[in-house]
Design goal:
The structure holds two protein chains of two kinds.
Chain A (H helix, E strand, L loop, with lengths): L2 H17 L2 E6 L2 H5 L2 H15 L5 E6 L11 E3 L4 E3 L7 H6 L10 E2 L4 H4 L17 H6 L4 H9 L2 H11 L11 H10 L6 E6 L8 H8 L1 H15 L3 E6 L4 H16 L15 E6 L9 H8 L23 E5 H5 L1 H7 L1 H5 L9 E8 L5 E6 L4 H8 L9 E6 L5 E4 L9 H6 L8 E6 L4 H15 L5 H18 L5 H17 L3 H5 L2 H15 L6 H7 L1
Chain B lengths: L16 H10 L7 H12 L4 H11 L3 H10 L11 E6 L2 H5 L2 H12 L12 E6 L11 E3 L2 E3 L4 H13 L1
Parallel strand pairs in B: 1-2
Antiparallel strand pairs in B: 1-3, 3-4
The chains are: A alpha/beta, B alpha+beta.
The complex binds flavin mononucleotide and FE2/S2 (inorganic) cluster.
Chain lengths: ~550, ~170
């Protein structure tokens, strides 16, 4: 197909999409599916048939609608009505009420902060389009950024635009995306690669899964634009094997894109080719680290290696390789469509745009949210998240997973941006946000993360392999009430050592949960210590 | 160096080896296809055994030690067959905060197993996962591929008992 043919088709799909009077959208992402949304969808379809409304109503399977804790969710796109906790027996009432008063009993208030305080850029199509149909993505303007770039832009103009947008990597580190792109674009190599990191190792985060399940074409479009900018011909998406639905939808999307000449040889009849292959992870957290990920793509054990050289110079098969996170790529198409200025108008001085968070833990509204950078944590927790259930108090919010830290309740007025979170000893991370209530013990929480790092350490470097085991033992000893203040001092020393001498980010950040809980909840550690032999002797 | 490798014969005349061959062919029998091939073996046979290791090693021309090294590095690969039913408890952060430990403990006590083991009658395997991506529904247990959210120790035991009686 040529660019013009795609534009014409897109127009046709748009007309088809809006033709029917009522659109009943059922969330078909993993959360709602496990609550039975597929059965609800069938029931809705049967009822439409029964009522003979096939000409005016359409049931659509869509991606994540956000409020996972109230699933299965069903939304009436045109009427702006959302139903929660929908069971198959509600289907009859929903269909009969179309065009009339909505069914009150299961209606969800769309004017609550959970919905109105969000700002959707990455998730703009999530819950609106059928992720398994490229026609839907084209109908809402999908691939128009790619067409624009391929027909009117030079590759360095693309890099400049991304640089000016101020976009920073969403995989955790926050490295400026434009700078990374320009390094790869300038690097010498016979072949270059573009890699999408969809390993999502933080246990308690599901943003990337939702993006892939809800809008896979957006990631493909972002990667293809990136490959044009840096001069790559082949891309890999490295995705966790634990996400079968995301893998399946991504596979389908790649096939569809190829059928429409949006991927493969001579894209849109132009002298530009790019193909994407999927590589499955196999349950190793360290493979989220970029050099380990490259080893894994090459079929090896996921052992990281020292940097430099960075993957931008030597990555897959020792060639210059661009590695970005799923959400980073998902931001590219809107940046091209609306311009860098529009994008950098959102967020703070140093952190531009929006960020997707996976809200979980002891919070009323669990699910997927997207907010502008610079919003306060308390707004996320108390307004969007609806606060803590059961009348309990919030104790801390954990961000950044095993590499991050806990932010105590008294600091929740902090602005959510890379620098502020860092100043409190945590990190932005990839977007997992776990709310911890007053019943939790913070030493336990630190021990939980250390157990994770201990079992996920790849074993290549000594500080991480041995250090995480020893730190975990010390935490166990503290929890059991057998430790003295000397053990605590030793733990702090070890944190320092492991942080400074480990080979890769896993070891370097493994002490973070301990250090951050020590910083804000030291009394919980102190309460568990027994007097050391020295002080005990002095007392006598 | 020898270049005229002849293709090794499959370990048995089980038809399923053809699927493994097809997977390796897709990647031109290149060593970098190792992980993808092991994924295929596991999804076809349910687990990886010595025969599979030897066959894959010879076909992709990767040392057997490397194949074993890769298979044991990644948690996803299983070296023992699964029981008739599997119960995977998520031990990710969200599930941990919501009490995954109690669920795990209840299962361990009831079945007399530790994570990674199978009951002697081969009925139930108990496993753990680090986040299945349904954190919004924590705590989560995957029972025979079905993701069940908002789990409690009582509910999980009820379902496991139903399996054992069937
Ligand atoms: C131990 C470890 C785990 C990581 N896990 C992930 C991950 O799951 N997903 C991800 O996108 N980046 C992860 N990263 C960061 C990557 O190494 C890399 O910086 C990132 O994919 C770059 O993309 P970005 O610039 O778009 O953020 C991890 C890093 C470390 C050290
Ligand atoms: S932590 Fe259990 S599903 Fe994510």
């Amino acid at each position: 197909m040529t660019p013009d043919e795609i534009r014409v088709s897109a127009k046709k799909y748009r007309a088809e999409r809006t033709k029917k009077k009522h659109h009943v959208c059922v969330c078909m992402a993993a959360g709602c599916l496990s609550a039975g949304s597929d059965v609800v969808k069938t029931a809705l379809e049967e009822n439409i048939e029964k009522e003979g409304l096939g000409d005016s109503c359409e049931v659509r399977g869509v991606g994540c609608l956000g409020l996972c804790s109230a699933g299965p969710l069903v939304s009436l796109d045109k009427e702006r009505v959302l139903y929660q906790n929908v069971k198959p027996h509600h289907a009859g009432d929903i269909i009969k009420s179309l065009g009339k008063e909505p069914v009150k009993e299961i209606q969800c208030d769309l004017d609550q902060p959970f919905f109105i305080s969000q700002k959707k850029v990455v998730l703009e199509n999530s819950g609106r389009i059928d992720p398994e149909r490229i026609e839907d993505y084209l109908a809402v303007g999908g691939y128009s950024a790619l067409i624009e770039v391929l027909t009117n832009w030079t590759s360095s103009e693309v890099v400049d635009e991304v640089t000016q947008s101020g976009l920073r990597g969403r995989g955790g580190g926050g490295y400026p995306t434009g700078l990374k792109w320009s390094t790869v674009a300038k690097a010498d190599g016979t072949e270059k690669y573009v890699v999408c990191n969809a390993d999502e190792g933080d246990p308690g985060a599901f943003m990337d899964r939702c993006i892939l399940e809800s809008d896979p074409h957006r990631v493909i479009e972002g990667m293809t634009i990136a490959s044009f900018a840096v001069g790559a011909k082949l891309g890999y998406v490295y995705v966790r094997a634990e996400y079968p639905l995301a893998i399946d939808r991504l596979r389908k999307a790649i096939q569809q894109a190829k059928k429409f000449d949006l991927l493969g040889a001579n894209i849109l009849g132009m002298p530009f080719s790019f193909d994407i292959e999927i590589r499955l992870g196999a349950g190793a957290f360290v493979c989220g680290e970029e050099t380990a990920l490259i080893a894994s793509i090459e079929g090896k054990r996921g052992n990281p290696r020292p940097r430099p050289p960075y993957p931008a110079e030597r990555g897959v098969r020792n060639q210059p390789t661009l590695i970005n996170n799923v959400e980073t790529y998902a931001n590219i198409a809107p940046i091209i469509r609306h311009g860098a200025e529009w994008y950098s108008g959102m967020g703070t001085e140093s952190s531009k745009g929006t960020k997707v968070f996976a809200l979980a833990g002891q919070i009323k509204n669990t699910g997927l949210i997207e907010v502008p950078m610079g919003i306060s944590l308390s707004e996320i927790i108390y307004e969007i998240g609806g606060g803590i259930p059961g009348g309990k108090k919030c104790k801390a919010v954990q961000t950044g997973g095993p590499s991050g830290g806990c932010i105590p309740e008294e600091h929740l007025n902090i602005s959510v941006d890379y620098e502020s979170l860092k100043s409190l000893g945590s990190i932005m991370g990839s977007g997992g946000m776990i709310v911890i209530d007053e019943t939790a013990n913070m030493v336990d929480v630190a021990q939980y993360f250390m157990e994770f790092c201990r079992s996920e350490s790849c074993g290549k470097c000594v500080p991480c392999r041995v250090g995480t085991v020893q730190m975990h033992k010390l935490l166990e000893k503290i929890s059991a009430g057998d430790a003295t203040v000397d053990d605590l001092t030793l733990l702090i020393d070890l944190c320092d050592l492991v942080r400074n001498t480990s080979l890769c980010g896993l070891g370097q950040t493994a002490p973070n949960p301990v250090l951050s809980t020590l910083r804000f909840f030291r009394d919980e550690y102190a309460a568990l210590l027994k007097p050391s032999s020295a002080t005990a002797a002095a007392d006598e | 160096m020898r270049t005229d490798f002849s293709k090794p014969a499959p370990p048995s005349n089980d038809k399923r080896w053809k699927m493994i061959d097809a997977a390796m062919r897709r990647y031109g029998h290149k060593p970098h296809a190792l992980i993808e091939t092991l994924h295929t073996v596991q999804s076809v046979f349910g687990y990886l055994d010595d025969d599979a290791f030897r066959y894959v090693a010879a076909s992709l021309r990767v040392p057997l030690s490397k194949v074993y090294g890769v298979a044991t590095f990644y948690h996803f690969f299983r070296l023992k067959p699964k029981g008739e039913h599997t119960c995977v408890v998520c031990t990710g952060t969200a599930c941990y905060i919501k009490g995954a430990n109690q669920i795990m403990k209840a299962l361990e006590d009831e079945l007399g197993l530790r994570a990674g083991e199978t009951t002697p009658d081969n009925k139930v395997s108990l496993m753990t996962a680090r986040c299945v991506g349904a954190c919004g529904l924590a705590p989560v247990v995957v029972m025979d591929e079905e993701v069940v959210g908002q789990m409690t120790p009582d509910k999980v035991l009820e379902r496991v008992q139903a399996w054992r009686e069937s």
